[in-house]
Amino acid sequence: MCCCARDRQERAIARHEVREIEQRHTVDGPRQDVTLDEEDDVVIIYNRVPKTASTSFTNIAYDLCAKNKYHVLHINTTKNNPVMSLQDQVRFVKNVTSWREMKPGFYHGHVSYLDFAKFGVKKKPIYINVIRDPIERLVSYYYFLRFGDDYRPGLRRRKQGDKKTFDECVAAGGSDCAPEKLWLQIPFFCGHSSECWNVGSRWALEQAKYNLINEYFLVGVTEELEDFIMLLEAALPRFFRGATELYRTGKKSHLRKTTEKKLPTKETIAKLQQSEIWKMENEFYEFALEQFQFVRAHAVREKDGELYILAQNFFYEKIYPKSN
Questions:
Q1: CATH of the domain at 175
Q2: Full-model pTM
Q3: Is 108 a known active-site residue?
Q4: Annotated active-site residue in 108, 192, 254, 298
């Protein structure tokens, strides 16, 4: 089946699934009569960066959605383009904020950050994300394009048949392993501005940092994914109740592993680290890691090598006027 036919089939299936869900929600009355509790009027957006363990994490959301009573929706953009057209931005914001049948909802997809406040939205969604050491992410993506993974082993990949190792690619100055290919996590957090996608932009780096601190509820790192899940379960149990145990014991904890991946040599790593692009992407990664570890340090305690979530550590007193 060609790509166009497969896309049309996937869209038709998706429309059918949406109609089924909307019909289930409207059996007992018209949609305008639906009143959501404050706890249910919540949307989480996970604008997942490729090759950061996003499939492993997303599958936890899928496994928990029926039990915890929320919806999971994949944002499937044409050719995985992370930048939406202006008209699609409007459609997406309208869908997410007014689609009551899909609330509470967990949206995930390879889409760069979108500022909902710019569209006059009063209640913004909760953004979360995970990032990874930039060189490790690029190496994983390089081999993924050639050999795929154990999630869909039979699927033909774009660079299938190319046996050149990552080390050989860097030594030859290949385009698939060029420093410019590192520029991804910064623009994903920076957003839909033109400057975000200008490779090596200092403004984009600073905007990505600003958004991470001010617009994201929590950003974890691939290397400490279990701790990220534990914090989400403690802070957002409506969605993530049971997530930590599922990650530790479930078969899907490390579902997607890139096949035939070979670790780069120290010489290859050193060569990439000479580029200004790596320095900026690594600065952003270190910034995110420091922030995540700061949040974790104030939320958990370690005992006998295990992390434990802290109980509520504040209370109210001196409440006036006194009731009779």
A1: 3.40.50.300
A2: 0.86
A3: yes
A4: 108
